TrEMBL record:
Taxonomic classification: Eukaryota, Metazoa, Chordata, Craniata, Vertebrata
UniProt keyword Oxidoreductase present: no
Domain of life: Eukaryota
Protein name, per record: HYI isomerase
InterPro entries referenced in this protein's UniProt entry, alphabetically: Sugar_Epim/Isomerase (IPR050417), Xyl_isomerase-like_sf (IPR036237), Xyl_isomerase-like_TIM-brl (IPR013022)
Species: Rhynochetos jubatus (kagu)
Keywords: Isomerase
Gene Ontology biological process terms from the UniProt entry: glyoxylate metabolic process
């Protein structure tokens, strides 16, 4: 979409289907060039001057239509499409897709196996909390995980509401083998801010880089 015009994705925005398809085609080209098999299909924002409840049905219909189209295009490239709920309490008040429950319901209606849930624990905590149960409930749908401490959106070991060692071990126990994206704003230097990761590896008996000391 046109970010300067206030757009943040187009997949659920009525009347912007042609632009969504153009953007998807460009994203596929970029993804193929860098070897990335997953593309986040941003839902977009409730149009300015409209009531969320009044347009929710039309936006969901548009979203489902575009997601089915995207699923077919991505299947041809052996790629996964991702839906990320973004909280509308702090980050983006007009964003259409806000909770994992809403995303799961839409994924069920679309019914395509190469569309998955991109679960950002920062957004999930703000909207719903109940992270352990939500991870367990929606685990079969999850295609990618992102993290940031709440409420500051900084490093996982910064002061906040979430216990990331517990959450990481929960993900391991559930059998998660994908990436965990660190989508946070470092409080200072990026490399210094990664000290939390080194400490976590050491607490798990791993060397820096995530390799097992026993394996060495």
């Amino acid at each position: 979409g046109d970010q300067e015009a206030g757009e943040m994705g187009l997949a659920a925005v009525p009347g912007r289907q042609a632009a969504f398809r153009q953007g998807l085609a460009a994203a596929v080209r970029y993804a193929k060039a860098v070897g990335c098999p997953r593309i986040h299909l941003l839902a977009g924002r409730v149009p300015l001057g409209t009531d969320r409840a009044a347009v929710a049905g039309e936006m969901e219909t548009t979203f489902i239509e575009n997601l089915r189209y995207a699923a077919d295009i991505l299947a041809q490239e052996d790629m996964i499409g991702l839906l990320e709920p973004i909280n509308n309490r702090i980050t983006d008040p007009r964003y259409f897709l806000n909770t994992p429950h809403q995303a799961a319901a839409i994924l069920e209606k679309v019914g395509q196996p190469n569309l998955k849930l991109q679960l950002d624990l920062f957004h999930c905590q703000i909207m719903d909390g109940n992270l352990s149960r939500n991870l367990e409930t929606y685990f079969p749908l999850i295609g990618h995980i992102q993290i940031a401490q709440v409420p500051g959106r900084h490093e996982p070991d910064s002061p906040g509401e979430l216990s990331f060692p517990y959450l990481f071990e929960l993900l391991e126990s559930l059998g998660y083998t994908g990436y965990v994206g660190c989508e946070y704003a470092p409080k200072g230097d990026t490399l210094e801010g990664l000290g939390w990761l080194h400490s976590y590896w050491e607490s798990r008996g791993l060397k820096h880089g995530g390799t097992s000391k026993a394996a060495e």
